[in-house]
Amino acid sequence: MNAVRAEANRARDARVAEAPGLTRAKLAWLLATRRPGWAVALWLCLAGAIAMPALLPLLDAMAVRSGLAQTLARDGALTVEQNVSDLNTFNKFERDVDGGVAGRTGSALVPLAANATVGPLHVVTVGGAPAGPAPAQQALTAAYLDHLASHVTVDAGSLPPDALGGGETAVTMPQAAADRLGLRLSDRVCFDFTGGAATPRWCARIVGFWQPLDLKDPYWGQPPNSLQLTMGRFDFFELVKQHPPQGPTARLRYWASSDAIDPGKAAVVADQVRRLTAELKTPDRRLTTSLAPSLESFHTLQVQVSTAIHLFAAAMTLLGLFVVALVGARFLDREAHELAVLRARGWPSGRVWRTAFSGLAALTLCALPVGVAGGLLFVAVLSLIGSGISPGWLHQEDVTGVAAAMVANLVGLLALLGLLAAGAARRELDPSLEAPFRSARAWWRRAGTALILGLAGMTELALPRLPWTSGLVQHAPDPLPALLGLAPTVGLILLTAAIVQLWPLGWAVQPSSVAGALAGWQLKRSPEQHAAATFVMILAVAIGVFAAIGLGLGPEPQVTSHQPALGAGLGAGLLVGTVIALALALAAFGLHFRSAARRRFQEYSGMLAHGLAIADLTRSVAKEQASVTMSALVVGSLLGLALAVAGLPLARPTGLALQLAAASLASALVCLLLAMLIAGSVARRLPIHANPFDSQGQP
Amino acid sequence: MTDVFGQPAFPGAMPGALAEIRELSHSYGNGPNQVEALRHVDLDVLIGERLAVMGRSGSGKTTLLNILAGLEKPTSGRVVVAGHDLTRIGRRSREAYRRRTIGYVWQQSEAGLLMGLTALQNVLVPMLGDGSSQLARIDAAVGLLDALRLGDWLYYTPDQLTPAEMQRLAVAVALANRPNLLLADELTARLDWPTARELLGDMGALLGNLGTAAIIVTHDPRVARYVDRTIVIRDGIATAAAGELAPGPQGRQW
Prior knowledge:
The structure holds 2 protein chains of 2 kinds. Chain A contains 22 helices and 11 strands. Helix content of chain A is 63%, strand content 11%. Chain B is globular.
C-alpha cells in the first residue's frame, strides 16, 4: 500500500516538476497574443506609427544635406586672382586673402588651392641637344601648385619638396604632357619665353611624371593643363626673375565646406560671402564665385521643403497616435473580458493595469525593430535608385535628432497605451456594474465644443499665411519658428475634431430596407460609436489630398532642377508618407468595423435565430461604413486642400501644373475610395454558418 | 491532517459566524422605477458551513451573492464577512477581500475563466503574487485539479473541456487562494443530476478539507441534501426552509 502511495507521489512530483509555471509577464504576453490576428494588426500599426515620425525628418535631413552638397559641388568655389611679381608679394597676397576669408566666414570656406602660373615657355634644348619639332612648337605653362602631392599619383620619379631638387631646378609634369613632347625622366630641358631663341634662359631637370587622381577634384578648378611644368614655390619665383612677357598670376581657391555649413543657416553664409567679395575686391584682383546666389536659392527651397515635410511629419505622427489609440482600444475591447476576470478575482486595478500594459508594451517593443528596419530599408532603396539623396551626408546631430524624435514618439505611444490600459483595467466582469451605454450629448453642447475647436483650428491653419507671422518667424528665438510651422497640423486636428462633433453620420443611410433601418437605428442610438474611425479617416484623406496637391503643384520645376535632392526628398517624403498614412488609417478603419461587425453579431443574435439574414446584418454594417467613408472623403478633401494652401510651397500654377494636380488628386481619391471599399468589405465579413448562441462560435 | 495543498487544514466547522448579515436591503433604480431586490435580510453563516439559497428568478438570490462577493454595495444594512465590513469597505480592501476571502463561481462558468490559458494556468492565475514559490504554486494547483478529477486535463484550455469539466475548473479556480467563503451561482444548473451529484460530492470533500464555507444559489431542491441548511428568498425576504434552520438530522451527504 505504501509502495503504491509512494509511486503515486513520485508521479505527481514528476508532473509538478514538468509543469510550466506562470508569471505575470508570461500571463501578460499570453493575454496580448491570445488573438493573433489582432496582435499582429496592432503590432504593424505600432511599427508604422514608430517609423513615420523618424523617417520623414530623416528623409528631410538627408535631402537637405544632399542638396547642400550638390549646391556646393556645383557652385562652392571662390577664386581670387592677382598678378604677383615675386615671392614676397605672393606670400602677402595669400596671407591677406586667407585672413579675410577666415575672418568673415569662419570655417565655412576652406582653402583649397594656392597656385601661380607663368608662361608661355618653349623648349629649346633637351639634354643639351636642340629640341625636336614636337617640343619646340608647343607652348608650356610653368606653375607652382601647392599640395600637389595630395591630388596626383606619381607615375615615375618623385615630387621633390620645395627647393630641394638638388643642385639644379627640378620640375615635374603630367605624364600625358611628357608623352606628347617625347620627354623622359631625368631629361635636362632648357626653356625660353619667346620661342626659337638661340640661347635658353632657364633650364631644369625633369624628376617626376604624374597624373591627376581625379579630374573632378575641385582642387583643379578646371581640367589641369596637360602641358604644364610644375615646381616648388622658390623655383617658380626664381623663374619669374627671368622677366617673362606676361607676369605671373597667383590664384587662391576656396571651397565652401558642406560639413561646416549648417543647411538652416545657408542664407547667413550667403550674406557673409557677399560681404567677403566686397571686402576682397581691389582694382588688381579678380574674384570669381556664384556661391552666394546659389546658397540663397538653396536656402529658399530648403525652407519650403523642410516646412512641408515637417508639417507632413507632424500630421503623420498625430495620425499614428490616433490610429494606435483606435486600434489599441479595439484590441483592449477584445481583451476586456480577461481583464475583468482578473478584477473579479480580486486583482488590484494597478496589477490588472500592469498586466494589460505589459502586453501592449511588449508588442510595442517588438514593433520597434520592425519600424527601424523599415525606415532603414526605405533610406537604402532611396539612395540606391539614384535620387541624389544619400545617407552619407548625414551628420551625427541629424541621427541624434531623429533618434530623439523616435524615442519621444515611443514614449508618447507607450503613454497612450498606458492610458488605454488604465481604462480597460477598470472594467467590471458584470456588465450591469459598468456605466450605461453613452447616449448622444445635447446638440448645443456639441455645437459649443465644435465652435471653440473650429475657431481655434482655423486660426492655427491660417497662422503661417498671416502677414505678421513672417516677421515673427524671422526674429523669434529658435524653437518658435519651428512650432509656428507646425501650427497648420494642429489646426487640421482641431478642425477635424470640430467637424466630427457635429457631422451627422446618418445622412447617407436610407431606412427603406432592413439593413438601412438597422444601420440608421445604430447611428441614431449612438452617433459617437464611429466618431474615432471617422476622425482617423478624415485625417488620412486630408493627408492624402495634401500630398497629392504637393506632388502636383509643388515647387517650380526649374528650381528643383538645380536642387534635385531637395525635389526628390519632398516627392519621396510625400509619397511614402501618404502610402504609410493610408495603410495605417485603412488598418484602423478595417479593425474598427471588424469589431463593430462582431458587436452587431452578438447584439442581434436573437434576431438571427428568428430569421434575420446574416447578409442583411452585413449590409447594415456596410451602410455604416459607407456613411463614414463618404464623410471622410468629403470633409477630408476640403481639409486637405486647406492644409495644402496653408503649408505647401505652392508655385504659381500653370495650366499643366493644375492638370497634374487635378489628376494626382483624382487618382488619390479614387485609390482611397477603392481601398476603403476593399478594407470595409473584408472587415464586415461574418461567417454564414456561425451559431450566434455559441460563445465559441463567434466570428 | 493535511489538505490538498500539503499544508495543515483550515480549522473545520467551528462555533462563531464567518458572515453576519443584518437588516440588509438593496434596491435598483429610483422613484417609481425602484425595485427592492432584498429587504431586511438577517443571516449568519458559520465557519465551514454550507448553505443553499433558493428562490424564484428575480427573488434577489444573485443580488445577495453579488453583495457578499463585494461586486455590489448594499443600499442599507450591515454585511461583515471574515472581519470585512462590506458596507464600508474601501477599494483596496475590497480587492484584497475578493482575492483572499472569497471564491466565486459564476452561473456560466466560462465567464470566470481565461479561455486562452490552460486549466493549470487558470488555477495559477489567482495565486500569482501570493508570495509563494512557483513550484509551491504549481504543486497546489495540480493538487486542486487532481481533487476535482481534472488531473488529466492540465494542459487543456477551457473550450476543450465539457461543460461539467469547465464547471469543475471554475470551482478549482475559485478555491485556488484557499478562501474562507465560496460563492456559487447556479453551480449545477447546466448539468444533469448524476454529473451534478458527482461535482457536489468532490467539491464537498474539498471544502471540508480546506474548511471553507459555501453559499450555493440554486433552483434545484436536490442540492439541499448536500448542504447544512437552506434558506429561501421570496420577494427579497429571506426565510429558513422548513425544518432546516439548523443542520438536519440527516445532515449533509458530503
